[in-house]
Specification:
317 residues, mainly alpha, 4% strand, globular, Fanconi anemia group C protein homolog, FANCC
């Protein structure tokens, strides 16, 4: 029998109207209340979770990777359950994503494994263009603001990770990946304005340029990679979201580059200066392995390294 994951999030809700306002602003802590996150198995189809509960969970935890991962697992299992039910929807997606563009929902519902690998970049570019139109074009007011679009996108967060991997390939670089850069910048900072998002894109592009050069280098060192990521530099400090995005790019590079395997542990030691960053790296490795399993990615050496690193870091946490 088919079982799907259900995320039950209990919160002290002080009114849907106030939550909508605070959610869109993505500011200020909410009043204390019951906040319990656990995963249970139910079947055959999940019970609908209120999007306002998930909004509370995301904002209360500052978008913690564990919460994002739970939302993404729930969404994937729910979509798979619907497919097993011959796609007979028990409710309209409009009910769950009241501010979402219906066409964007349908694009995000596509499973990457059903798209030829050579067309992934094209699919990501299309998603980025649709999101950008909704977020930056004020004529789409009926679809809400940036937070509503981001809230929809994080349910299908595997696309953002795919964009990061695509940007590390020479093919993506040759195809002027501005759309993928925008997608990553938006995924890590939905509350950022146009100028801040553009600055994030500039910084990420500079890091990618350095990583691409290192990819072709016959010898890699942890210090070279640290310098490429711009850590320890004299420039102005980056916003936390931008720093997190660059760390994810560096981790993707370590798993992908043959020379990165030998220095992965040293790089992570230099990178994980706090418990929060350590947990962030653990979450990234866990999500990557989960996504590779669902995409049937054949990368035995990278998988082996990711599993070893995950086990070691969990032992240290």
């Amino acid at each position: 029998p088919y079982f799907s994951f259900i995320a039950f999030i209990t919160v002290d809700v002080k009114g849907q109207e106030a939550l909508e306002k605070q959610g869109r602003e993505k500011k200020a802590k909410f009043p204390p209340g019951q906040k319990r996150l656990s995963i249970h198995r139910e079947g055959p189809l999940p019970v609908l979770i209120s999007p306002y509960q998930l909004t509370y969970a995301l904002l209360e935890t500052d978008g913690a990777l564990e919460v994002l991962a739970t939302i993404q697992v729930f969404t994937r299992c729910f979509v798979e359950a619907l497919e097993k039910e011959n796609k007979q929807l028990k409710f309209a997606f409009k009910t769950y994503f009241p501010y979402a563009s219906p066409s964007l929902v349908m694009v995000l519902l596509q499973h990457p494994k059903d798209i030829p690998r050579g067309l992934w970049h094209q699919a990501l570019k299309h998603i980025s263009e649709m999101l950008k139109e909704v977020v930056e074009d004020q004529t789409h007011g009926s679809y809400g603001g940036p937070f509503e679009s981001w809230f929809l996108f994080v349910h299908f967060g595997g696309w953002a990770d795919m964009a990061a991997e695509q940007l590390l390939t020479s093919e993506a670089e040759a195809e002027a990946p501005e759309a993928l850069l925008w997608l990553l910048a938006f995924s890590c900072g939905p509350g950022a304005g146009h100028q801040q998002r553009a600055q994030t894109m500039v910084e990420v592009k500079a890091v990618l340029r350095c990583l691409t050069k290192l990819l072709r280098s016959p010898a890699l060192s942890a210090r070279d990679l640290q310098a490429a990521a711009g850590e320890g530099g004299q420039g102005a400090p980056r916003p936390p979201a931008c720093q997190q995005l660059i760390r994810r790019l560096v981790l993707s590079f370590l798993l992908r580059a043959p020379g990165g395997h030998a220095i992965a542990r040293e790089v992570i030691t230099l990178m994980a200066q706090t418990d929060a960053i350590m947990h962030e790296i653990i979450g990234f490795l866990d999500q990557t392995l989960y996504r590779w399993d669902h995409l049937c990615v054949e990368a035995p050496r990278s998988r082996k390294l990711a599993r070893e690193l995950l086990a070691e870091l969990r032992g240290q946490a």
